[in-house]
Amino acid sequence: MAQQNQKTYANTLFAPLLSSNLAGNYQRGIAEGLWNILYRATLIAKKYKDKLISIGMKATLHIEGQPKGNHPITYVIYHVPFEESENKAIGSFDVPSIDHSKIKHLELIKWTIQAIQEQSPNAEVVLCTDKNFGSQLNNQDISLIYPNVERNRPMYYRAKTYNTIIQKKWIKNVVVFLDSDAIVLKDLADLPKKLNFNVGVTSRFAPNLMPVNEGVIIANAQSQDCIKFFAHYMGTYETIKDDSFIKAITKNDLMRWRGGQLSLNAICEGIKFVDFRDSLGGLKILPCNIYNYAVRDKGEVNTLKDNRKVYVAHIKGKAKY
Amino acid sequence: MCGIAGLISTTETFPKGLEPEKIIRRMIEKIRHRGPEAVRIKEYNNQKCWLANARLRVSDERDIADQPYESKNKRIKLVFNGEIYNSSYLEKILKKTDWVPKSQSDTERLVEIIDAVGIESLHSIDGMFAFCAFNERNKHLYIARDRFGQKPLYYVSGNGIFAFASELSALLELSPWIPMNVSLDSTSQYFSLRYVPAPHTAINPIRKLEPGQYAVITPKGDVSLDRFFSPSKTGTLCSNDLNRSTTEIIHKNPEAAFDLLLSQSVEQTVPQDAAIIVSGGVDSTLVAAYTVELDKKMGVTSSNRRSYTIQLEHQSSDESEWAKFLTGKWGWNHELITLTDRQLINSYLRISERLDEPLGDRSLLPSWSLAQAIQPHNRVAIGGDGGDELFIGYERYLAIAKYLSHHGDKINWAEFYWKHGLPVGDWNGIQAANKRFGINPMSSFLEQMRILQAEYSDSPLEFLQILDLINYLPGSVLTKADRSSMDWGLETRSPLLNSRIAVAALSLKPKHLIKNGNMKIVLRNLLENKVGKIPNQGPKQGFGAAIRSGSELEMFLKDNIQSKLKQLIDSNPDSYIIQWISKFVKGSNKWSQNSIFSLSIWIDWLLRLQKEYPTIKI
Fold first, then answer.
1. pLDDT tens, residue by residue, A245-288
2. Contact B236 A205 (CB under 8 A)
3. Parent domain of A179
4. How far apart are CA B526 and CA B517, in angstroms?
5. Distance, in angstroms, between A63 CA and closest chain B CA?
6. To pair with B609 at 20 to 30 A between CA atoms, which of A262, B86, B131, B264?
7. What's the predicted TM-score (pTM) here?
């Protein structure tokens, strides 16, 4: 019996310590698929960089309204709901399916806005949405803008909306592009100065995920680094969305899902795993566990808030229920 | 353990005048000391890809295990330096397919797992390694380096060539075809850190892989770098629920967890005929104590186990006495080597003739002498490298962490640590020389470390630990261990740098590791369980004290600098590098033992380079 206990203990201990092979820690099919598409996208982004930047600078869309843009920091959130009748499933090989009916988007976004206003009272909060959803948030003291988008292609139009805001130079100071389910726990306004960057993205290491996450992007909005970064990001997206090799692996519409994060990872020149040492010039790679922490459930947000270490808590997937 | 090299044409043919067979032979001969027992060269892809290996036959001594090694289906060709510790685990996976082993070598398991899983297999490989795998099907080349940088890997590309090698010196053979120059930035960084930090090297455009990094090289020569591991106190283990529960298990009873992990690691790492280096400090003695248990389990006769302790003539003998006492109790065949200044000078003369890249770590001298003593009797030696970094063992951490905690964001922690915790050259002298040439090579490096500082803002001790794990450990400690042992064709292994131990150790908090002023408390407790109370030995001495003030060795080094610096300046007064050095020397007020040793090594290296490779611009 003692021997059996020792064996169980050893198995529990050994398996996860070599981020490898057992117990769902590493899923080969997903990891390989991601590696292949990231490798392809990175090659494209690197090889045609100048051309892609030029494409990206012109890849903007019409937006009704515009931010005030003169606050010390501006948080930009994108949420244009799917049509009610539309199937909301993501359908990408690397994303587990979730029950969308269990997610209360309006409540989540209100929480996101409230958290920003609490932590960063001098900030402008900009919500990119449609008029119907926006009308439900009229009393939140935020700026509402309405990009002209296709609702069933959220990732493509989100990236294009971000790029439009940057290329039109609507924001003068620091901008944070934030997922609608990312809760700000500490003000981010001083970060670019403190860590000397013009663009900061967050990365994590988990074998089944892309390293750089789109959920939090911090930038000095009018810096050349930022303008070129977003142009490169969008230019890459415009190019890879029709790439047959990538589409053959993802088997889905890259304008609907996956294309934005893939483009972002490609321009950060990491195939599977980047960290702070991969920062290039004005672009800094920041650790997710401080600047974009994925919580297990909503309750964990309060624990993190009390600890005062994490800047942004990200409520992903089933944690949103 | 081996030396590896490769030469690949990324255009239709190699550049004019480059005879690949001749050059690859010269490359591998340059590093033959790493593996003197078998040199093999093979060509693939219509003579566009040449791989070479100089082998130290450790795992399966037969020639069927020599490299380059092909996968069963001939798709993957591999040259590999190091040791795969979990090759029996890989074998279990492979046996689920129709694979039948031909040899007992870890190389065969490695090549087959790469063939079966691809480069993603790096996540499941544990060991110390640097390898190159050529995929015959898509003509891609993969090069990779282990998680903590125990084995080196250099590479260069240009003029239609991609090449790699275990040591920088092999790649210098390509200088007639790829323009090379001594890097001014790296020179300045060397005098700040005592090593040139990866990915840079002393020679442009040669690069070295960082620990835990790999690269994919396309047939056209595009190089894509990526990582498979990065040490972290928060990210590595805590990214999902499964790992969080593992952390909880470790925290609940660290001694039980590490007892199991160490037993497993020693079993995987320590062969029956390996020598054990027992310094008398906690780390190496602990590894030795676990080896005693392993020997009992495996029925190894204790008198067959050789062990070594090295001490400097002028150092206190507390630690070596304890090592002698314990090894005597265990019945081992123990040798105490006492080094005099004269022996250290002799070591210096040999090392300075052979070192491929400057390394200003003074303990290079005794480490080299130790390898010299072990090599006639053993092919493998076991030590305790990595313990101080993984388990917070350096006493300097405490005082520095206290200071950093007090000053918070106002200072750059890495800069402060490197200036005051691990000082090398006089920073005033370095700054004066940098200013003269309008360079500041440490600035972007220090800026990156600011991100690390922000991540560990509430725990300067953990910041220092990670900082050393990614810089000092691979740059200085492990490079010293590799070069000093491989110069004698001796393989050194550290069971403490087993990947599972390392990741588990990173999950520990300072409260688990420091109690009542004692550091590495988990390891100390484990050791006391095995051998009884650890005697009070006073401050740790290490080999760093090799150069005494006023000693024969110090006089030798000063004399060496004086005569050769003048020779260097006279030989090439227009060189920016030599002007930088001249300015640095003039601007330096303090000459520590570190700065004397670093400068002397650097001058000898540059003079040798000038003589052997006149095409390299200085």
1. 998 888 888 998 889 999 999 999 867 678 899 998 899 999 99
2. yes
3. 27-320
4. 17
5. 35
6. B131
7. 0.92
